[in-house]
Structures are given as C-alpha cells and as structure tokens.
Amino acid sequence: MNKIRISAVSYTNTKPFLYGLQHSDIMDQIDLSLDMPSDCAQKLIDDKADIGLIPVAATLSLPQWEIISAYCIGAVGAVKSVFIFSNCDIRQATKVQLDPQSRSSNNLAKVLLKNFWKVQPELIADAPDYASSDDENTAFVQIGDRTFGKPTRYKYVYDLAEEWKNFTGLPFVFAAWIANKPIPADFMVAFDKALKFGLDHRRELLKELPKHPDFDLEQYLMHNLDFDLTEDKKKALYLFLDYIKAL
Ligand SMILES: C=C(O[C@@H]1C=C(C(=O)O)C=C[C@H]1O)C(=O)O
Questions:
Q1: Whose Cα sits closest to atom 4 in ligand 1?
Q2: Looking at ligand 1, which atom is closest to the CA of residue 14?
Q3: Which residues have C-beta within 8 Å of that of residue 88, sequence separation ≥ 6?
Q4: What is the number of the ligand 1 atom nearest to the C-alpha of 57?
Q5: What protein family is recorded (predicted)?
Q6: Digit-coded pLDDT (tens) for 135-151
Q7: 101 Cβ closer than 6 Å to some ligand 1 atom
Q8: Helix axes 15-22, 185-200, angle to 10 degrees
Q9: pTM attached to this predicted model
Q10: Tell me: the pLDDT tens digits for 210-241?
Q11: Which pLDDT belongs to residue 132?
Q12: For residue 1, what pLDDT band results from cuts at 50, 70 and 90?
C-alpha cells in the first residue's frame, strides 16, 4: 500500500502531535514532512500531500476537503504566538504587513481590521522585510516561534486569538487536520489515537524541548494552545470562513 503523505506544521505548536505520531506504529504507514503553514496548505492544494495540518483559511482554495481529526491548533483566548505588533495603536496604522508563512492569521487580521477595529489600512502581502519598518504607522502580523519573546519589544501588541474572542465571544481554530481525498476510517482512528497520546504526554515532551529564556513553553503547550476541535471551535471555523468570503 502507498504511504499516506502528511504535511504538518514545523513550529513548536505541533510538537505534541509529532511526539504522538513518533511514538506510534502509524509512522510505518505515513510519509511525514514538516513545513511552514503556507507550504502545508500549498501541498494539499497541489495534491503533493493527502492530509495536512493546514491553515483553515486555505480550505477556501480546496475543491474537496474533509476534517479528519478531533484535534486542531486552536485557542480559547490568548494564544501567545499570533500577533499584530505595532508602534502605534492599530486604529492609527496606515499599513499592515502580512506574514508570508501564514494563511489563517493574515486573514484573521483582515477580518478584525474590517469588522472589529473598523479601519482600512493598506495590506501588504510581499514586503521585502515584513517584520521591520522605520515607519511608526506600519504594523505587521507574525506567527509561530519567531514571536517568542517579542511582545515586550513593541508598544502595541495584539494577540489575534484574544481579539477574535473579544469580537465574537468564541474560541479560534488556526489549523486543522484536513484531507483532500477520502481517507480510510481505520487509519483516521489510529491517527487520532496517536495524536491523543502526544497530547497526553506533553509533560514528557516539555522535558525534551529547548528552554526559551523569555517564553513560558509550559504555559503555551498546556494552556494557551487548545487542541480539542470542539463544537464551539467548529462554529468559529465556519464563521471565520464566512467573514473571509465577505472581505
Ligand atoms: C498558533 C499558531 O497557529 C498557526 C497559524 C497559522 C496561520 O496563520 O496560517 C497556521 C498554522 C498554525 O501554526 C501559530 O503558528 O503560532
């Protein structure tokens, strides 16, 4: 049988899932690659992967897709790794530079700017150095491990999962395990069992991970990230997709 090709996110947020997969027999059935989120999405769109932990915003570019797991990369309140960093209040920003590695958070920023903050800064998708600008009124989106320790460096810091909660009262789903074709049911059961093993062993995993001097990894993996794809998170996911379609 051909191996099932899986693209997972290469950030710390996905380490519990990797721990579970690497401690299970399912590794023999899969061909696993670790990619930045925008590439996870592109691999599923180009049919270079069968399953991806993809930014949920990218489902809008897939002709066929199905959620195949009860787990996700989500948050109920502040997530601590998805931000708009700014030197001015976001309502005064004239430009917002987007993170090329992101699909969901760039869209979340757009949804919040339009519907929550009700402002229309210029959105820049391909800034040569998107995370730095001399201009006081240029803000930027950034996701993942590159944000660790950064919130103290900016005058205005917006945690986008927290702002979404302020806006909608709902949790948020950044990425979900999505397939672009039917996947055998017995594989899905074994896959979720492996993911759950990883989540249940986060304390063991934490002992293996390098320490960050200015970031609380334990708080992040145990509390800020919320991995259960609950009914409320699904509701938030479909609401988010509706907001993106209306941009
Ligand atoms: C919480 C995070 O969620 C992520 C954000 C994503 C996006 O913006 O497209 C995609 C996958 C997740 O890794 C993060 O990266 O920090």
A1: 174
A2: 13
A3: 136, 137, 139, 155, 156
A4: 9
A5: Belongs to the MqnA/MqnD family. MqnA subfamily.
A6: 999 999 999 999 999 99
A7: no
A8: 120
A9: 0.97
A10: 999 999 999 999 999 999 999 999 999 999 99
A11: 85
A12: low
Amino acid at position 60, single letter: L
Q: Any residues with CB less than 8 A from the CB of 62 and at least 6 apart, and which?
A: 44, 45, 178, 180
CB atoms within 10 A of CB 23: 15
Q: pLDDT band at residue 133, thresholds of 50, 70 and 90? A: confident
The DSSP bridge pattern shows strands 4-9 and 95-97 to be unpaired
Domains annotated on the chain, with CATH: 4-76+171-230 (3.40.190.10), 82-168 (3.40.190.10)
| C-beta of residue 79 within 8 angstroms of C-beta of residue 161 | yes
Closest ligand 1 atom number to CA of residue 58: 9
| Any atom of ligand 1 within 6 Å of the Cβ of 51 | no
pLDDT-derived band at 153 (thresholds 50, 70, 90) equals: very high
* Ligand 1, atom 16, residue with closest C-alpha: 144
Half-sphere exposure of 193 (CA within 13 A, CB side): 11
